[in-house]
Amino acid sequence: MQRENLAPIDEAEAFAELARNGVALDDIAAETGKSVNTVKRRLAIAGLCDEVKQELSENRISLSVAEIMTLGSHDRQRGIDSATRNGVRGPSKGCLDRVRLLCRSLEKALLISLVAGPRNQTTRLFRRVFCCGFLLAAPIA
Q1: What count of other Cβ atoms lies within 10 Å of the Cβ of residue 111?
Q2: What span, in angstroms and rounded, lies between the C-alpha atoms of 4 and 81?
Q3: Taking the CA of residue 17 as centre, how many other CA atoms within 13 Å lie in the half-sphere pointing to its CB?
Q4: CA 93 from chain center: how many Å?
Q5: Beta strand pairing call for 134-139 and 126-131
Q6: Backbone angles phi, psi at 105, to 5 degrees
Q7: Alpha carbon distance 69, 80 (integer Å)
Q8: Contact at 8 Å (CB) between 59 and 48?
Q9: Closest of 117, 121, 15, 44 to residue 138, by C-alpha
Q10: 102 versus 16: which is more confidently predicted?
Q11: pLDDT of residue 136
Q12: Which has the least CB within 10 A, 24, 62, 94, 110?
């Protein structure tokens, strides 16, 4: 690893080659001046499907996105890659607004049912319900 400022994908492939040749992670880290965690993350990048590697090498996705994609299977990586290339970036603002409205409606209905519902012995406890990313707590007493 003589050359400095390698692109992340080139660095990943170089680390993978060293690992295939039996070089230990600690030795790769020491030889390259990178942390062991960085070496592990680059080795994971080397294991990405070819389509995602290409996207990374052409700077169409960031290194952090590529690292996240290492958590999925090659099929999932290809699906995400295809969706992002075709302009699907995530839910629209309108969709998010509808989800937020639905969550508020569910919260109100839940609170009403908790207040109007039957009482039980545990008056000091709270009934907690996780709904759409919000932790709701309503006293039972």
Answers
A1: 14
A2: 29
A3: 7
A4: 21
A5: antiparallel
A6: -65, -40
A7: 8
A8: no
A9: 117
A10: 16
A11: 42
A12: 94
Partners of 126 in the beta sheet?
A: 139
pTM exceeds 0.90 for this model: no
Query: In this structure, which amino acid lies at residue 126?
Result: F
CA gap 111, 79 in Å, rounded? 39
Q: Report yes or no: 24 and 61 within 8 Å, Cβ to Cβ.
A: no
Cα separation, 23 vs 16, in Å, equals: 10
Enter the tokens of residue 22.
């039996």
Give residue 36's Cα distance to chain centre.
21
| 47 residue type, one letter | G
Residue 54 amino acid letter: Q
pLDDT tens sequence across 99-121: 666 666 666 666 666 566 555 53
